[in-house]
């Protein structure tokens, strides 16, 4: 027998969907749930875009550029969400601000390390450009002196590219520290605060994931990689877990077999350099077949151009992400200074009134 009602059908015939999103005891208006759902659905779509079509793409510059681009979009979304929530900095818990400011400094350090490594790759690129120039300077077969100079430059390149950037070592420490502090902050008596903290948690998960892979690719080491485990209560959880399974096999399998991670475009350039280096010989006096030499030079030029273009595009994305983080940090500090100034004005006004009395 059906239960009596006032003539209106129940609002949620299959149960309250809000309860599936937030734990018992929480309540959010439909507007706040809509804002959060929109944010989390967008995050889920970005994570889906990062799934690999080719198993070698994860350590490629094109995948890394896309990952940084999507990460920037998510950080920009948080800024828009705060505006839509109409949640002024004055209402932020002091602990939230401390965590946000601390994390933003760490992200800026990571960006600087990535930029430093891309700059180092570009500087090494100049050595190979020198090799190509020397070998192309004569339409005939290169002289013994030219081959010797090219061989020396190739050797210098291999030595320089094998060096490890100390700034990348710090990335591993930073990322593991961010992971250790990764938790969904509990918020009391603030519906908007709950939405904000939940959104920031999603941003932090995506940030750690993307930056750890880039750091591993740049450093050639698995140490920056972290194990991320996410609750199934988020709208982006399924997309994230699928991505994690998709990417981890590509990165962790070579590591388990004793092979280091390496940037894809850099790896193919290195192979081309090693072949040309061996072909020329230590004193430039080896027997070099002209056609084989030009084929090797042409192959190196094509691969070097792809590496250069890819690193330039990734550098722009890293710089763009750096600016987003920096602008967000400056905006928070600016708002805090305004709040402090307003407080000082109120205090001065009260003192003045007391004096007049």
From TrEMBL:
Listed GO biological process terms: root development; shoot system development
Organism annotation: Protea cynaroides
This protein's name: BPS1-like protein
Source superkingdom: Eukaryota
């Amino acid at each position: 027998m059906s239960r009596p009602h006032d003539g209106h059908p129940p609002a949620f015939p299959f149960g309250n969907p809000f309860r599936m999103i937030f734990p018992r005891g929480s309540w959010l208006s439909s507007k706040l749930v809509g804002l959060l759902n929109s944010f989390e659905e967008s995050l889920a779509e970005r994570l889906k875009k990062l799934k690999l079509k080719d198993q070698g793409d994860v350590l490629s510059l094109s995948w890394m550029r896309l990952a940084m681009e999507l990460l920037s979009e998510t950080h920009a979304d948080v800024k828009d969400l705060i505006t839509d929530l109409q949640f002024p900095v004055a209402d932020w818990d002091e602990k939230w601000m401390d965590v946000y400011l601390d994390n933003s400094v760490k992200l800026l350090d990571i960006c600087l390390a990535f930029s430093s490594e891309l700059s180092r790759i570009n500087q090494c690129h100049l050595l190979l450009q020198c090799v190509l120039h020397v070998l192309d300077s004569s339409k005939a077969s290169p002289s013994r002196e030219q081959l010797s100079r090219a061989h020396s430059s190739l050797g210098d390149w291999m030595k320089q590219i094998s060096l490890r950037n100390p700034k990348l070592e710090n990335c591993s420490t930073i990322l593991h520290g961010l992971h250790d502090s990764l938790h969904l902050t509990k918020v009391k008596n603030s519906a908007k605060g709950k939405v904000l903290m939940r959104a920031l948690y999603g941003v932090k998960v995506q940030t750690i994931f993307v930056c750890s892979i880039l750091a591993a690719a740049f450093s050639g080491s698995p140490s920056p990689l972290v194990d991320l485990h996410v609750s199934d209560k988020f709208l982006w959880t399924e997309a994230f877990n699928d991505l994690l399974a998709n990417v981890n096999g590509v990165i962790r399998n070579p590591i388990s077999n004793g092979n280091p991670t390496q940037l894809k475009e850099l790896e193919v350039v290195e192979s081309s350099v090693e072949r040309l280096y061996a072909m020329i010989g230590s004193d430039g006096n080896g027997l070099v077949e002209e056609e084989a030499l030009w084929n090797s030079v042409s192959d190196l030029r094509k691969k070097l151009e792809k590496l250069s273009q890819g690193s330039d595009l990734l550098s722009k994305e890293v710089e763009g992400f750096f600016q987003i983080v920096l602008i967000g940090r400056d905006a928070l500090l600016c708002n805090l200074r305004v709040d402090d100034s307003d407080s000082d004005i109120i205090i001065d006004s009260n003192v003045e009134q007391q004096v007049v009395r």
